[in-house]
């Protein structure tokens, strides 16, 4: 029998209270902004949890910033679940939200519920996010009735990039803004615990946030939302293909990694790495015995 006792969730939380969908609601009521970032791996999740980021979204942006796809459309359920598991091993404080990939919830209601359930049953997630408005209400209701919290996503929904003709801001005309506003109310009525608003005019996002009882999380939607999310690789300056206008870069990891890899390459080629402090010693008498044994 193993003598190692499992680490309790209290110990992993280090005295902090676990963030839940209820905490999201409380933050909205108290006017404290919700912090959310994307993560796709264990070390990043560990650091975010240590800092106390409220929520980690394992976004299907995974496809672009980690897997090198052109857009998010090729991302599969298996790829999402694999990365969700890695994040769940590192994060115990943040609310963990798995992003449902393209065609995992659009084909049928039954398929949507099964796939949403896999995020909780197989990958340690506590909620799912999916894109779209009125056309998704039925699927959202079914997922929630299976006991799975759902976060909505309106505005620039990247899985519809081909309908939009590119990664373009949404809701800029009165009619588009009205449609988005109505969709937000419908998603709230369907039971979503929160909504992402992506790339929409700041005054529209603020209006929607004021009208809704559930919290909104903005990305490129100004600071009138109840919280903010960014793609972590954008924030770290690690994704060099393009940087959306709404990103603030908090670091330049691309340049820093380039510098480190370059320095390593030079050190190996010039023989300055590994140095004596990186090597393993062998006692002199053992070495002599070896040379005698093999008659070297
Ligand atoms: O996939 C993702 O990272 C997202 C965020 C941009 C909200 O959906």
Q: Biggest sheet: strands, sense, closure?
A: 8 strands, parallel, barrel
Number of helices: 13
Could you name the ranges where pLDDT drops below 50 across 5 or more consecutive residues? none
Ions and ligands: 3-methyl-2-oxobutanoic acid
List how many beta strands DSSP finds: 8
Mean pLDDT: 95
Helix content: 40-55%
Q: Strand order across the biggest sheet?
A: 1-2-3-4-5-6-7-8
Supply Rg. Answer: 24 Å
Approximate shape: elongated
In N-to-C order, the SSE pattern is HHEHEHHEHEHEHHEHEEHHH
Query: Percent of residues in beta strands?
Result: 5-15%
The oligomeric status of these chains comes to single chain
What structural class do the secondary elements suggest?
A: alpha/beta
Compute the separation of the termini in Å.
Answer: 49 Å
Describe this protein's structure.
The mean pLDDT is 95. With 296 residues, the chain is an alpha/beta fold. An eight-stranded parallel β-barrel has the order 1-2-3-4-5-6-7-8, surrounded by six helices. The protein has helices at 9-13, 21-30, 42-51, 62-65, 77-90, 109-123, 137-145, 161-164, 174-190, 202-211, 232-235, 253-270, 284-293, and strands spanning 34-38, 55-58, 95-99, 127-129, 150-155, 194-198, 216-219, 227-230. The longest helix has 18 residues, at 253-270. It is built from 13 helices and eight strands.
Give keywords.
13 helices; elongated; binds 3-methyl-2-oxobutanoic acid; 296 residues; 44% helix; alpha/beta
